[in-house]
Amino acid sequence: MLASDFFFSRCFLAAICLLHLALCKTPQARFPWRPGHLLRRTRRIVPAAWVTVALTFWLAPAMAAPTGSAGISPVTPYVVRDDFGGSVKKRMRQIRELNAANRPIEIRGNVCMSSCTMFLGARQVCVDPRTTFVFHGPFRYFSRLSPREFEFWSVTIASYYPKPIHDWYLREGRHKVLRVFEMTGQEVMRHGIPACAP
Q1: Does 114 score more than 70 pLDDT?
Q2: Confidence bin at 142 (pLDDT 50/70/90)
Q3: CA-CA distance, 39 to 128, in Å (whole number)?
Q4: pLDDT tens-place string over residues 42-67
Q5: Distance (Å, rounded) from C-alpha 190 to C-alpha 19?
Q6: How far is CA 26 from the centre of its chain?
Q7: Percent of the chain, pLDDT > 90?
Q8: How many Å apart are CA 11 and CA 93, to the nearest integer?
Q9: If residue 97 lies in a helix (H) or strand (E), which one and from where to where?
Q10: pLDDT at position 172
Q11: Interhelix angle 35-64/3-24, nearest 10 degrees
Q12: For residue 1, is pLDDT > 50?
């Protein structure tokens, strides 16, 4: 709900409250402004005023709240087209930001390669059965990873995969660096990742 909607709903109910108090007034001709009459008039108005104020704050949230999903902006999915990978660190940050924004990820391109496959570990993800997923082991351009670095980045990448792909990657998939393994979207779906809506 927008702040302006809330403000105007309160103003509307406040106006009803004032109108109610005005209608509760006893004509001055019948009750002149004498102390005794003023006291009796106050006793009649004050209970009505308290009831009106109570109803105002009780009904305001219900009147101001949107009905159903009206007023709630739908979250726009992040659609992955042809993605040939890139930095693992940058991909981790991207997935973290998308998860924090509660954005679904739809992998719909012809190819999802290298670090793109880490999208499979996002909180909300679906795949196109026609997409080809390409896996290989971690590497660094122009310098070789130490065994310790290779193990660290292999485990990091695998942590984004469903359990069967995770186990396969650590057992076999990571050991191809200059060559690759391919997996279809249909195969990925068999490991628990849902298909995207047509």
Answers
A1: yes
A2: confident
A3: 77
A4: 455 445 544 444 444 444 444 444 44
A5: 66
A6: 55
A7: 59
A8: 45
A9: helix 88-100
A10: 95
A11: 150
A12: no
The structure tokens listed for 124 are 């909300």
Query: Is the pLDDT assigned to residue 37 strictly greater than 60?
Result: no
CA distance 107 to 116: 9
What is Dmax (Cα atoms) for the chain? 100
What's the Rg (C-alpha) of the chain?
32
Q: Which of 143, 99, 139 is nearest to 123 (CA)?
A: 99
The secondary structure of residue 184, as a DSSP letter, is: E
Count, residues in the chain: 198
The tokens for 172 are 């076999």
Question: What letters, b where the CB count within 10 A reaches 16 and e where it falls short, cover 85-95?
Answer: beebeebbebb
CA dihedral 22, 23, 29, 33 (to 10 degrees): -40
Q: How many CB atoms lie within 10 A of CB 182?
A: 11
Beta sheet of 181-184, edge-to-edge order: 111-113, 132-135, 181-184
What single-letter amino acid sits at 134? Answer: V
Q: What is the residue type of 82?
A: D
Query: The sheet that has 105-107: what strands, in order across it?
Result: 78-80, 105-107, 125-127
